[in-house]
Design a protein that fits this description.
- The chain is an alpha/beta fold and about 150 residues long.
- The protein has one domain.
- It is built from nine helices and seven strands, in the order αβααααβαβααβββαβ.
- It has a five-stranded mixed beta sheet with strand order 2-7-5-6-3. It has a two-stranded parallel ribbon with strand order 1-4.
- It starts with a helix and ends with a strand.
Length: about 150
Amino acid sequence: MNSIDNFLNEKLAGIGNIVWVKPNLPEEVGEYTENDYTKQWLKSKGIVFNSDKEVMSFLNSGKMIPVSKEELMKKYDNLTLNPSEFEQELKNPEYLKSFQSMEDVLVRGSITLPAPIILLVDGTYFGFAGNRRLNLAIKHNMPIKVWLIQKN
């Protein structure tokens, strides 16, 4: 084996895994209340919340499921699944710092993360929360689990 192969094998061997856990849903309510794009998208689908309690009830209807990048790419909105698009997101210094922090832990071993929250509404996957977490798994070809909320 040449030195490049050795380097790549060592890097790959050093990557751990992602342990997905149920998101802390009360912390994620702000992804609706503070995000006009999410509010408008949901409103266009006939979904409107009048209180944090209603948002929580909606979020609690989800379940943890495995999903592939290919499945998400069938039809999506508000997700950054293309690596070049995600690179644009990383131009924000705070976003980059947060992503690199998670990635540093992952390459040293295992990391436990809240599953991204994905809505499946009328056949479209909508990223509600957890874009960086999702992209960390995609970048490192890790299995993805999401907190999926279906509304048809």
